[in-house]
Design a protein that fits this description.
heterodimer; A: mainly alpha; B: mainly alpha; 76% helix; 0% strand
Chain lengths: 293, 334
């Protein structure tokens, strides 16, 4: 009888298949990524036409006879195609999310590993800083950082990355604390491996599971927070097609009955966040069964 | 118990000091001369000089921090660049509005969230369970500002049931005592004002309650499921206690402990959500105040609000921990 040993990633995929909501989440995320990559092929119009086509402003979409055929979801207040802007917006939001979570991961893994591995006063200092940052509601801290750095999408990404760092650092630290006590680490120390080798070859690879799980869940909140900053006028600035900024520019039109420009970008945010949350929950159930809720 | 509370209070000091250092550095890190940052670009040289003197801006940073901290502890948060009013006064004027909004949202969230969680757990894998938990996934992923806009559009613009923005109808005047609209109108017996301010409160608080409601429902469900699997529940069922009694009298009480922590944690998040909700509904609270201040580069206001928000958040977290110890006899304090 021949039986090949399945690798960890094969096992992960096999178990993920049985989790229906995770598969659903993954499907949404894949569609989102495809939209982001191929936005310039799928989008029927330019997200920022120049010169502006103001005569198309607030034209409805496919549901109305007054609509323009090439703009299925209608036009916004400046006559730009809502669908095209949402598709390009996927690119903006995903990039922003990945960059923010990337920053949080690099900083969080560095500080978390150092604190957990070395302990003592280093740990105490890092954890006190983490406590102080936890004293702020996340969005407020991001607003504070944006106030100092200035407004803009790039600054919003940095701000959100910094805000998520303490969370990541705490997760990594607790995982490092656990792994550090394992026998194989003791063996490495006994045979005289350097700290750097132990950390990079043994400790970090073994704490990858929580990083994947919380990275996915963090990506969801990063997209949400980035849209929130955009909505408050502190993130992406016009004419960047960012979902939150699109909402803030078009919600005043609902009073005059133009509901589409403020409705569809929000659905895009909601769907992406749901997709990432379902995927993250599914990954957590598989990779970290202790945390199952 | 006393020792535990003292210890927690002492642990608060370094955190609050850190918060104050962060708020202090906000103005020093802003580009340009701090005196101009505090006084505003259009301030006269005399004003800028008096600011420089008041905060000791020619002295070393540590001295500057010390001077500033002493003023803050006396309740002096400086003046707003835009309105030239005292920041502390403006915060206290807006604070009751934010509290009214967050409290009412929390009441919605706790009532509906707990009920949905209990029903889901007691009928696990039923239609109720699946639909409540499906809705909860939507709830935790909801962009509050968008939900606010949608509620405004449906109930304000199309159905015209409720007003879309503001705190109370402009037509109504009434006497202010505590600053809380609902409370003041009840005290003065002004029912027109009470109904009006209540109508303005509904949409924002429903929008704001969504995320905590969903979180509370999920935690209640999982906590209930855990309790329902325990031996004492089996004993009660075995001795023939009606299922109703088992669930409402015994299981719920034990399941509420983790829920209370989540409620406490969500209160802080609610303050952050209030920033967005208040902006959508032009609600005259601290959240909208801080957003406007950031947009106007009104640094003293941003600084004051940051201090205020963070202190609130820390205190609510502390209270949650204390309540937690009180209700859960298993927790060892000492």
């Amino acid at each position: 009888m021949e039986r090949t040993r399945e690798t960890k990633s094969q096992e992960l995929i096999r178990r993920l298949k049985y989790n229906k909501s995770a598969v659903f989440g993954l499907a949404i995320v894949v569609i989102l990524i495809l939209c982001a990559i191929f936005a310039n092929f799928i989008a029927p119009n330019s997200p920022t036409p120049s010169p502006p086509e103001l005569f198309k402003a607030l034209k409805p979409g496919f549901w109305s006879e007054d609509g323009i055929e090439e703009m299925p979801l209608g036009a916004d207040g400046l006559g730009r195609c809502v669908l095209s802007r949402i598709l390009y917006g996927a690119r903006v939001s995903l990039t922003a999310g990945f960059v923010a979570v990337g920053i949080a991961m690099i900083l969080g893994i560095t500080f978390g590993t150092i604190a957990g591995y070395y302990g003592g006063w280093v740990d105490a200092v890092v954890m006190r800083i983490v406590d102080i940052m936890f004293a702020f509601p996340a969005l407020l801290l991001a607003i504070v950082i944006v106030t100092v750095l200035g407004q803009g999408l790039d600054k919003a990404m940095i701000a959100i990355g910094i805000v998520y760092t303490p969370q990541m650092a705490r997760i990594i630290r607790s995982s490092v604390l656990y792994i550090k006590e394992m026998e194989y680490i003791e063996v490495q120390k006994a045979i005289g491996s350097s700290d750097a080798r132990i950390i990079f070859r043994h400790v970090l690879p073994n704490s990858i599971a929580p990083v994947i799980v919380y990275g996915t869940l963090m990506l969801a909140t990063a997209i949400l927070d980035c849209a929130a900053l955009g909505f408050l006028g502190l993130g992406a600035q016009p004419p960047i097609p960012e979902w939150g900024a699109m909402l803030s520019k078009s919600y005043s039109y609902i009073v005059s009955g133009a509901w589409w420009a403020a409705t569809f970008p929000g659905i895009a945010i909601l769907l992406s966040v749901i997709g990432l949350n379902l995927l993250g929950d599914g990954l957590r159930d598989i990779l970290d069964p202790r945390l199952k809720t | 118990m006393k020792w535990y509370i003292t210890k927690r209070l002492l642990m608060l000091i370094p955190v609050l000091l850190g918060v104050s250092i962060l708020a202090f550095s906000l103005i020093r890190l802003a580009p340009g001369d701090p005196a101009v940052t505090i006084a505003g670009e259009h301030a006269s040289p005399q004003v800028i000089n008096s600011i420089r003197e008041k905060y000791g801006l020619d002295k070393p940073l540590t001295t500057q921090y010390w001077i500033w901290l002493k003023q803050v502890l006396r309740g002096d948060l400086g003046r707003s660049i835009v309105s030239n009013e005292y920041v502390a006064k403006e915060i206290l004027e807006r604070f009751p509005n934010t509290i009214e909004l967050t409290l009412v949202s929390m009441i919605f969230a706790i009532t509906i969230g707990c009920i949905a969680g209990i029903i889901s757990a007691s009928r696990q894998y039923s239609v109720f369970d699946y639909s409540f938990m499906g809705l909860a996934i939507f709830g935790v992923s909801m962009p509050v500002f968008w939900l606010g806009i949608m509620l405004m559009m449906i109930f304000g613009v199309y159905l015209r049931w409720l007003p879309i923005s503001g705190r109370i109808s402009m037509m109504i005047s009434f006497q202010r005592i505590t600053g809380f609209y609902l409370l003041d109108s009840l005290i003065t017996g002004n029912f027109a004002a009470f109904i009006s301010s209540l109508r303005y409160l509904i949409l924002p608080s429903v929008a704001l309650s969504t995320i905590p409601m969903a979180t509370i429902a999920r935690v209640t469900r999982s906590s209930m499921l855990e309790v329902l699997r325990q031996d004492f529940i089996r004993t009660e069922r075995a001795k023939g206690l009606p299922e109703r009694m088992v669930i409402y009298k015994h299981a719920v009480r034990n399941a509420m402990i983790p829920v209370i922590t989540v409620i406490g944690l969500n209160f802080g998040l609610l303050l952050a959500g209030a920033i967005l909700t208040e902006t959508v509904f032009s609600w005259p609270g601290i959240g909208r105040y801080v957003v406007n201040a950031v947009n106007m580069r009104d640094y003293p206001v941003v600084q004051g609000c940051v201090l205020f928000f963070a202190s609130m958040f820390v205190i609510v977290n502390l209270l949650t921990d204390i309540v937690y110890v009180y209700i859960d006899p298993r927790i060892h304090y000492g």
